[in-house]
Design brief:
Length: 159
């Protein structure tokens, strides 16, 4: 069974993430979406909230599971016999960092990283930009699942 992981913060999940996850699910037998637990980085949603939103948003794929991880991604992969990391590449700005990580991860355990080119519809999309625009009242509907959009509005209004 060929297993891949799509790692990220997903704070919150956007249609850009879902595009990459769906395309990974079409290529691998099982895809684990792994939510990074980073206690040093302030987040809008808790890890449990992010997992729940991802589970709902990926429910149409029978071969996608959602989990959380901290520490080294390569350790997470080894524990689950995952041999591939799938990452979306938006722009050249993603490339430097992603290439470095891919090479380091390969050096550590031999895990392979596969880059999927962003869907041009979402190439400018990141969770942080969506949150920033929404904070100031910009209309970001259509860039993330409706339910996630509503949950984000509630959180931002509370803040
Ligand atoms: P961000 O906070 O920038 O949205 P994450 O850390 O949650 O990103 O991203 C996880 C993965 O999803 C990364 O591989 C990232 O490149 C990819 N990704 C995020 N947004 C997009 C997008 N719009 N198109 C393609 N890949 C994306």
């Amino acid at each position: 069974m060929r297993k891949a992981v799509c790692p990220g913060s997903f704070d919150p999940v956007t249609n850009g993430h879902l595009d990459i996850i769906g395309r990974a699910a079409a290529q691998f037998d099982e895809v684990t979406v792994a939510v990074l637990i980073n206690k040093r980085k302030a987040s809008l949603f808790t890890v449990d909230e992010r997992i729940e939103m991802l589970q709902e948003a990926t429910a149409q794929h029978g071969n996608v599971v959602v989990d959380a991880f901290h520490g080294l991604l390569v350790d997470f992969c080894q524990e689950r016999q995952i041999t591939a990391i799938v990452k979306g590449l938006r722009a050249i700005s993603d490339f430097d960092y992603e290439l470095q990580m891919a090479q380091m991860n390969n050096r550590l355990t031999g895990v392979e990283t596969f880059f999927v080119s962003t869907n041009p519809l979402y190439s400018y999309l990141s969770s942080s930009l969506v949150k920033e625009v929404a904070t100031y009242g910009g209309d970001v509907r259509g860039l993330l699942p409706d339910k996630v959009y509503k949950q984000m509005k509630i959180k931002l209004d509370q803040a």
